[in-house]
Specification:
With 611 residues, the chain is an alpha+beta fold. It is built from 16 helices and 19 strands. Helix 7 crosses helix 12.
Length: 611
Amino acid sequence: MAAEPDGIGAIPEDPALTADPSEIRAERPEHRLDPRIDTGRDIALADFSPPSTGAADRFIRFAYRLGVPATMLTSPLGRKPRTRLLATVSNTLPGNATAGTALRAGHFLVHGAKTPIAQVDYAGAARVTPPLERAVHSFSWLTDLEACAPREQCVPVAERILTSWLQANPAPPSKPGKGPAWAVGNTGMRLMNWLAHAPLILSGDKALRNRTLVHISATARWLDRHVNRAEDGLAEVAGWCAIVAAGLLLPEGRPRRLYGEAGLVKALGDLMGDDGGLLSRSPLAQMEAITLLVRLRNCYQATRRDAPQTVERVVELLVPPLLALTHGDGSLGSWQGSWAVSASDIDDLVKASGVRTRPLRDVRQWGYQRVVAQKAILQFDTAPPPLPAHARYGCASTLAFELSHGIHRLVVNCGGAASGGGLVPVRLEQALRATAAHSTLTLDDANSTAVLINGAIGSGVSEVDIDRKTLAQENGGNATRLEASHNGYAARHGLNHQRILILRDDGTELRGEDVLLPAGRKGKRGKVGFAIRFHLGPEVEVSPTVDGQGAALSLPDGSYWQFRSTAGEVGIEDSLWVDGQGRPQATQQLVIQGMVSRGGGNFGWLLKKMR
């Protein structure tokens, strides 16, 4: 492979960032929010300052950005050192031992679907499912392999796959987009995993070791030049993390590290809001960002350096919003393409982050409300979907909610769009992003925001009004009242959707009302069909009431709940829920449907635990 200069092509100078991030808020008091929050559309970005450096470091960073080779900046009179790794990184993020065992048996195991190692097209010419594509080309499987057996038993498997991949991808292409292997996100993740799991791929055959080291160096140079052409903000962060890691672990890496740290800080500021939520509004993306920064911190520790304070602050900001979307069993709610990621995976990630904090109750820029009432946890989506530039699996879920009681889920969203291609068929991906796949109201069987291909979101919800306050109850207790509305159906049907949720502080009663209001001064004529869906958790047993106006719900812990509606007959239909491993589970849903005047209407319902 032809050698490339250590420098990079001329890259536009990044604008300086001057403001410090806002202080982390572990818990916020109840309060009345601003009457209109365009969350996800007019979100205020988190601004971070680049690491403070002296004049010499600033000059080196500037020169490297302009393309001056690292050798000239670090040892202008000396010889270029041979490529080697300067330290061994300790991995604090455990992998999936089951997936690792499947690799030793000759298969990639992704969301329950097995694919023989020998049948994978590592060049990317043959179309494979997106989850398998990411696993193969990001080398995330190295973490799983390391978790399943002693290193000496795993090295032959790692070398077999690495050899096949290198034969299919002998050299970086001229630019990104030449197949999935060279998307900036996959490339950054791959380089990070190669550096973090170097003993698995550099402990065996000497010729393969030397070839891999040459490829590591070439990949780092390729990212230097192309990181600003990433497919989205999270992919760019992955690229910058890999550049910094290479600057830490490869010889003469100081110029690259300084260059990468400044780029990483800017990319992080563009990725997230000041409450720590990513603009993609995706819990999976939130987890990936934390994972990248934890891996990068491990690289700093391996070289006996402290990570920049900005990196530590960002990790502290990212964890509380993620915890806001956990239920009583510790697993995630199903939002923006994510599935119900298991509690053990969340616990492992939070432990590796080193952050000890509480969930945020009111993540108003990220767009989720959380209410905890004894054993009950309510999650409420009170924001527009993410912009197309940030959405990987954008969902039309505005005003959907989830409710759990103890370790059991009562009301859920289907979730799992990002797992399409495992046991969840790819053809279901778009359906799982639809409004009907969430526990909310739909009009005319249409999405509140247009769901497009490739994870993108179109027009629809652009404004969300939100109000949160505490109510005193007649029995002496309190309740939390959430009121939110969106304009997703205004252009098509002339109606705004308003949802009111009132959860008693003892967690035994959730009252709801869905209201349709004319968007203009005068309502349109005619009627339109509506449906209000309540997707039920996988362990809920449901049966209709005699009068057809409700349903009885039973949980495995022996508790009994009753659902009642004042809006018409309650139907029971089949549904789908994607579990903590990204696998589909057959469930059921309650559906209230009928016709409503374009002049508006209101539909009340009650979910109550019976004694």
